[in-house]
Specification:
The protein has 280 residues and is mostly helical. It has 16 helices and no strands. The radius of gyration is 18 Å and the shape is globular. The N and C termini lie far apart (43 Å).
Length: 280
């Protein structure tokens, strides 16, 4: 069944080139998989791409990571030593994805929404066991990558579908499948596989519109999906202003119950996002 869904996803975007994994990430993977992975080598790989290095330092010194250092992180070498090899890798992937897609206003709208979701997920991770801020941030940026591919496939038509998805996060999957024969979740899996994301992240991307979350049997994947759904609900509430649909309310309530997060914590995360977005 999964194979058939992936086949339909490939058919839906026929003619669209999936984004290639950047060379820096391939080099980092090779180094991290070596027997004696070296901090200096990892830092050198990142530093060679000045834009990527700047993005990583910006993330390190932003509220995303909440390092609470007396002085800002000024070098990639320092960043690698502070976060560790695996964690810095997540920030590099996040940086690459942010820079990968560029285009019209709709591209930017989807990526801006994902950036806000990523910020929220980083905060939510403080209340979830065994999920780091950098993992949450990367997944938040990546979860909607299939939507970006569909914009490339159908620039005119997908805009309306995406706009509706903000208030209809449950029913949008059926709408996409009727129109394209596949949904953005499965298309996102194709990109995530090409970018060598972990199996848990692949499953979270594939299932991130599942409602209720209890349908997902794997504990970590269920937690990741609940984080995505809660973050999406928070960002949608702020984006849509006074109008919050029942589907968005259901998404949020189910995720809150799954993660066992108190309402005052959700309010704090919402306030932090508004402050972060305003500063941005």
């Amino acid at each position: 069944m999964l194979h058939e869904k992936l086949r339909k996803a490939k058919a839906a975007i026929q003619g669209v080139q999936l984004p290639e994994l950047p060379s820096e990430i391939l080099l980092l993977e090779k180094e991290l998989q070596s027997r004696f992975a070296d901090v200096n080598t990892v830092a050198s790989i990142i530093e060679k791409n000045t834009v990527m290095a700047g993005d990583v330092l910006e993330a390190m010194n932003s509220p995303v990571m909440q390092l609470k250092l007396e002085e800002p992180v000024k070098s990639i070498h320092e960043a690698v030593k502070l976060l560790g090899l695996e964690n810095i890798y997540n920030l590099v992937v996040a940086s690459a994805l942010k820079r990968l897609f560029s285009g019209d206003e709709l591209y930017q709208d989807i990526m801006d929404f994902s950036v806000d979701v990523a910020f929220c997920m980083a905060d939510i991770s403080e209340w979830v066991d065994n999920i780091t801020r950098d993992e949450a941030y990367m997944l938040g940026l990546f979860h909607n990558v299939g939507a970006l591919v569909l914009v490339n496939k159908d620039p005119e038509g997908y805009g309306k579908v995406y706009a509706n998805s903000l208030s209809r996060p449950i029913s949008v999957i059926a709408i996409e499948e009727e129109r394209y024969g596949a949904n953005h979740q499965m298309i996102g899996v194709l990109v995530a596989k090409k970018w060598h994301l972990s199996v848990d992240f692949l499953n979270a991307i594939m299932l991130h519109h599942t409602h209720p979350c209890a349908k997902i049997k794997h504990d970590r994947v269920r937690a990741l999906v609940a984080m995505i759904q809660l973050a999406n609900a928070i960002v949608a509430e702020i984006s849509l202003g006074a109008y919050v649909s029942q589907e968005v309310r259901d998404f949020e309530q189910d995720a809150v119950e799954e993660l066992m997060i108190q309402s005052d914590v959700v309010s704090e995360i919402r306030t932090a996002l508004m402050s972060y977005a305003f500063k941005g």
